[in-house]
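Anyone have tokens for Homogentisate 1,2-dioxygenase? Sequence:
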Amino acid sequence: MDDTHGSGHGAGGPGERPGPGHPPAGFGNELSSEALPGTLPIGRNSPRRPARGLYAEQLSGSAFTEPRADNRRSWLYRIRPSAAHPPMRRVESGTLFGAPFTDLPPDPNRMRWNPLPDPAPGTDFVRGLWTLGGNGDVRTRSGVAIHLYHADTPMTDRVFCDADGELLLVPERGTLLLRTEFGPLRAAPGHIALIPRGVRFRVELPDGPVRGYVCENHGRPFTLPELGPIGANGLAAPRDFIAPEAAWEEAEGPVEVITKYGGALWTAEWDHTPLDVVAWHGTLVPYVYDLRRFNVLGSISFDHPDPSIFTVLTSPSDTPGLANVDFVVFAPRWLVGEDTFRPPYFHRNVMSEYMGLIEGAYDAKAEGFVPGGGSLHPMMSAHGPDRETFERASAEERGPQKIDDGLAFMFETRWPVTLTEQALNAGHRQRDYDRVWEGLERNFRP
Ligand SMILES: [Fe+2]
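Reply: yep, here.
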């Protein structure tokens, strides 16, 4: 569609160590990048005449007055200001829906799905978004929506922007090349990408078709969890969050800019690309993170810790310790607990849990939970290991055991998840999921 200029070579993959032209990195840092030297103003944000004839624009992801620890904003130096665009008109959103989800009552049943079927040929990332359900309300910036995506076609002459929330992308198949206003980022299976609310981006598919999961966070932006007695290190390290290097595009001619706002899609045809940022600095930036860098902590004596110990990112609520949503990863790790039932225990939870599988298998389910699929365990609905897993794990005491054949994750959210009709009625939903807990024997010996 156009030429990309600048130092952002589209590398920025978190698997690569920063080499010459280190990408900016560090979660929550004040980062900066300029595709042409001498573009960022020094000692101020909004000079009378920014260098190289650019326009300065601030993007605020928090209210101006939020405390420093929560404040997120960036300054963009762009070829034309974002304000220069025509009116937006509402368009069909297909299989993408927005909160509040009111078509169905909240359903207490445990649910499980197989992967989405392949998309219709010609489906790009935006058209391939498929909403499973969610909670809260985009109009009060609360809760989440859970989507899946599948696409076989790159976005061309189309750019997407989600004003309703931050997007946490979890690729399961294929690489996403995210051409953002801040520059390009690559996210492959095993990585996550975080796109702040309001940041515009285009999705290209350098390795062909893609499939994955999306947590659309309407609430407070994701941040790293506090570590408490764990200390200064552990879990996800801030420096492993890689931001893009600035790169601008020169496309003139029509570009469709699609904005998700109030749960619906709105479109406008711009006469130039909005990906025209030559330099930026700030704290509101997209990131990629390699989940294989997650420092997994666990018990070295007995018992299975609560899965909150696997939290990568959390979106806090107004209640201390209660997340709007947590993003949790079940990464390769050793299990060494003595006299301990090692798989996840049976439990009922005030939170609602959506799980997905990026690769391999998950240690609480012997079968039926497959990469690209997902399960939902609603508020207070009992769940845990299936019969086969229970019998295997309780049979005998085992020595140290490495779990290294899978990468699963969870979106754990404070409110019940209400499904869309397409999720409840999907042909790829497993109608017999409850049966995985059938046949758990009565072993009671009074
Ligand atoms: Fe659970």
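The radius of gyration is 22 Å.
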